[in-house]
Amino acid sequence: MTRRGVVSRRGARLATIGRVRSEQRHRAVPVALAPVRALVSTWVGAVVLTMLAYTVTASSPALGDTSWRDSARLGASLWALALGAPLDLPDARISLIPLALTVAIAWLAYRMLRSVGVGTWNDVGVAAGSAFVTTAILGLSMHPGTAWLLCAATAALLVGLAAAAGMRSERPAEGRVWDALRSARSALASILLVLLAAAALLLAAALVLGRSRIATIYGYYMAGAAGVVTLTLVQLLYLPTFLVWALAYANGSGFAVGQGTDFSAFGSHTQPLPAIPVFGALPPTGTRAAWLVIVLLVLSFGLGVRRSRGCEAGRAAVLAVTVTGLLFVGALAAGIVSHGSIGPGRMSETGPRPVAFAAAVALEIGLPFALGALARHGLALVRRARPADGGSGGARQATAPGTGETGEGEADDQTGGEDLSPSREGPVKG
What we know:
Oligomer: single chain
Order of helices and strands: HHEEHHHHHHHEEEHHEHEEH
Structural class: mainly alpha
Shape: flat
Helix content: 55-70%
Strand order of the largest sheet: 1-2
Strand content: 5-15%
Radius of gyration: 31 Å
Largest sheet: 2 strands, antiparallel
Number of helices: 13
Distance between the termini: 67 Å
Number of domains: 2
């Protein structure tokens, strides 16, 4: 190759690198602004929601000397609570996260980052850094202590995960780990969909059965229609939390609503509870529903059988192990974020026990799924082990040389047991 050709190729390579870097710089700005829009819009939404609630319930004697500034501050603190910063009240500390608001932040960040396009891991880092700085600025205005750091770290984690989930890469990551994760993604989505549906049905049934107690608790507040709507909206912020509690109830690991309480499919024990309407749906002491555990086992096994169609034995084994591991990790995270304090004293212990909940999910959902994924291949091996003719496993018949008649055992000795019947290979030649 001539010197001129080498210089030309080097120049083209440098031009390509420069163009890529220029595109990255131009994309960095919208990528950095997307989390800002998501975080600020949810912050404003939380503040507006609490101020609206204050407006429609300002005449209630229960509010006392509360002003609209206090309501705005409460909305900002509620937004920070969704990112993990505890809400400190005069006589209590609330640390139970309103997961609906947390999910809204992550979903909005995902949609906005998806629209601007996230193509590299550098973009993921830019989005996470922008979320950290934005949340730190908003958090310092509300929490001069160290709580703002927790908010910023949580926001960076959420936005980073949202950016990674929405990343569009021309060259997908390769390797056994990434292949296993991609194969498990659709199976895990199916499992989560079934679990959410089951938890929603269980929660709906509990609300219907406890509707009289719920109505009685609503009557204690005497807040009118506007107050009922406001109180309902506040409880809806914890809807994902209640779904996790319902799943903990169904798998038998249970959850607590205050120290000394336990609610699970194997039995419930309750104590006096705060006047929160949704708590009217909790089962009374002595209620048992152990059949729910069996339902989860059957559903998980059936999903494993269904998702293993078309998979080889080795791939099915990898799928089973990967899904079970991801279920344990996800359940542990769900148990942690759905556990916290909702008041002083006994109410400082609320929610499922994270480790017990994750272990129950792995044993009752992950393990049956794994067995179901491998069951099809196990049956196939059993069928292959059976004799083809359904006999007692003895001698096969083969065509005798030159006659067309059959003899017993002779062909097996000569051919090593191969099936050389006329319908397949024709007459055996001597």
